[in-house]
Amino acid sequence: MARITDVARRAGVSPSTVSYALSGKRPISAQTRRRVEEAARELGYRPQPGLPAHGAPNVLAVAAPLRRGVHLPAMMRLTQSVVTAAREYDHDVLLLTHEEGLNRPGGPAPAHAVLVVDVGLHDPRLPVLRSLHRPAALIGLPAEPPGLPCVDLDYREAGEACVHHLARLGHRAVALAGPPPEVYLRQTASARRLVEGFTAAADRHRLVSSVHPAEQSGAEALADRLLRAHPAPTAVVVQNDALLVPLLTAFRRRGRRIPQDLSVLAVGTDVPETVSAVTVPSARLGALGVELLLRERSGPPVPGTTLLPPRLTERGSTGHA
Length: 321
Known about the structure:
The protein has eleven helices and twelve strands. By secondary structure, it is an alpha/beta fold. The strands form two sheets. It has a six-stranded parallel beta sheet, covered by helices on one side. Strands 7-6-8-9-10-12 form a six-stranded mixed beta sheet, with helices on both faces. Strand 3, helix 5 (125-132) and strand 4 (136-139) form a beta-alpha-beta unit. The radius of gyration is 22 Å and the shape is elongated.
């Protein structure tokens, strides 16, 4: 079934322009209207009656609580991508940054639908979402299928990809420098799944592996702990944007050259261009989350889980052991 985004892509316009051209809600040039109508005919597109008219207030709520251990710039980049995608559908965004944002009387009024981010394996917000009786979608993957559309980077595969890359380079001892301890205690899905992939791949390759939750302020102590370990890791995977640069600095202060003496690989949103990395595709995740949410709201079936495959880019911070 053709979607409004397919018509927009064919016609070379935004989804909101497609809606205006087909509904007549706002003036559109005759040339653009003809291009949109032609694209709609070619694709067999029919407007989805479940989506509200553009003349009505359309509001999506994004449940993004600012918890301890959350890296604020990464969270803001994700929410910015949601806002940008929502505007393409002529929707506004209500940002819920309080932990109890979904539990307030009446739910996240005046939002008509809810997008949840920073999802836990056993997220306590899921029962609340079901009780709201509103369309909902998740950017994150819980332990059990929640009956709601989910989209995320495949963090387990990302952890595996990092270890496979390092094993091919001959590394036999690897470490994972992860987010702060409270992120693991909350069982945040992205952190837990990356650990699963990292340790499973290390076991398959018969590598010595270790996992180290860490605060940004703990970079110096972590560098000492890793370099004094027996055996000391010859490669470190960092899943902590705030920690990455301080940890690189700490290694260099101790005379370790990157990558001649120590390889470093990152999984994150804001990664320096000199560091090999699996980059979290925030813009793609935000756009997909909005699309899934609006498709669910309009009635047609949507996929239960969409996992984006990780892409590892070599930038010179990893080398042979």
